[in-house]
Design goal:
The protein is an alpha/beta fold and 342 residues long. The strands form 6 sheets. A 5-stranded parallel sheet has the order 1-9-8-3-5. Strands 12-13-18-14-17 form a 5-stranded mixed sheet. A two-stranded antiparallel ribbon has the order 2-11. α6 packs across α7, α7 packs across α8 and α7 runs parallel beside α9. The radius of gyration is 21 Å and the shape is globular.
Length: 342
């Protein structure tokens, strides 16, 4: 991105052999059903932490593959287990306790990452910024005491929505938006559902048994909560638009960004932007909100969301509508959408 905004922190940068990243949405979690992209995005977490860390009750970060633990040999050097199969891993993530910078010369995580690269990883190595301590504070629901999983247990690991604005805005599939565990863990108070296919569906937990609602029984299409400036705001905003470039999503942009902003509270409320697959309509809305809230040109907002959600595929028609939105916000068109990137 051409500008630096406090609420739009860069997600993993894959152009580096070793990168320090802040852990964010899209991480694995225990759940029911297999995530459709699991096989192409398997994660190998290579971890090395000092002995004191093993006194913590949460032993590691939950991932969608069994983690590999590095060990120190007799001369104090890291060794890679023979079954690590680095060359087959699309994502290799390293973390220690507290590493927060690539300039930390004493970082065990950085030493491990360099070794992973030298030992044959075909993809960039990522280091979780802030290590286990910061990750577990930001995402306590992704901690686990379990180290080894059976294949059937790995198949049952699902994913969380992708974080667009840290601690506030997430892009989700419709199925994720109906998951009461996600609603609870992310403290979701608002849901923008951009999908005409859901017209006949009752939204958000209405039909769940009371014991499964986990204290969020009032989260329904007709419920309201106290939002910004003591204003009563709805919790669900439905946009009946199909995933077609001929559909008019532009006309909803102003109401959508107002709904999202009404939920921007200091106590950690979050908002989901959901569509059936979470790659086109909900992504378009995410870009529109970033443009509006951070005064970003379409190209900058697009690039930010693309880094968070690499498989996003907004239709050409939606890109053209975002270009109109850019002209409305800034008085002129800034982004050349004829470029191949769009």
């Amino acid at each position: 991105m051409s500008e630096s905004h406090p609420d739009l922190k860069d997600p993993p940068r894959t152009e580096r052999a070793v990168s320090t990243v802040k852990a964010r949405g899209g991480m694995a979690r225990k759940g029911n059903g297999k995530h459709p992209s699991k096989q192409s995005y398997s994660m190998c977490a290579l971890q090395k932490r000092c002995a004191d860390d093993f006194e913590m009750p949460e032993a590691s970060v939950l991932s969608s593959d069994n983690s590999t633990w590095l060990v120190l040999n007799d001369i104090g050097a890291f060794t890679v287990p023979s079954d690590a199969e680095l060359e087959t891993k699309q994502h290799v993530v390293v973390y220690d306790s507290t590493t927060s910078s690539l300039k930390d010369k004493n970082s065990m995580a950085l030493s491990c990452a360099k070794l992973m690269w030298e030992m044959g990883s075909k993809n960039p190595i990522k280091i979780i910024k802030g290590g286990y301590q910061e990750f577990s504070a930001l995402y306590p629901y992704l901690r686990t005491q379990k180290i080894i999983y059976m294949p059937s247990e790995l198949d049952a690991i699902a994913t969380y929505p992708v974080e667009i604005i840290p601690g506030f805005l997430y892009v989700a599939t419709f199925k994720q938006s109906q998951d009461h565990n996600i609603i609870k863990d992310l403290n979701v108070k608002g849901n923008v559902i951009v999908a005409k296919e859901t017209d006949s569906m009752q939204v958000i937990l209405i039909h769940l048994p009371a014991e499964s609602r986990l204290g969020i029984d009032n989260f329904s299409p007709h419920s309201t909560i106290l939002g910004r400036a003591e204003k009563r705001v709805n919790q669900v905003f439905t946009v009946p638009v199909e995933d077609s470039g001929n559909e008019d999503l532009y006309s909803y942009f102003s109401d959508i960004v107002a709904f999202i902003d009404d939920h921007r509270m200091p106590d950690g409320h979050t908002v989901l932007l959901s569509s059936i697959l979470g790659i086109s309509r909900s992504v378009t809305v995410a870009i529109a909100y970033c443009m509006w809230s951070k005064k970003l040109a379409l190209k900058d907002a697009y690039n930010h969301v693309k880094k968070c959600k690499e498989n996003m595929q907004p239709t050409r028609g939606f890109i053209e509508q975002l270009s109109r939105w850019e002209e409305k916000l800034f008085g002129s068109t800034v982004t050349d959408i004829t470029e191949p990137n769009y």
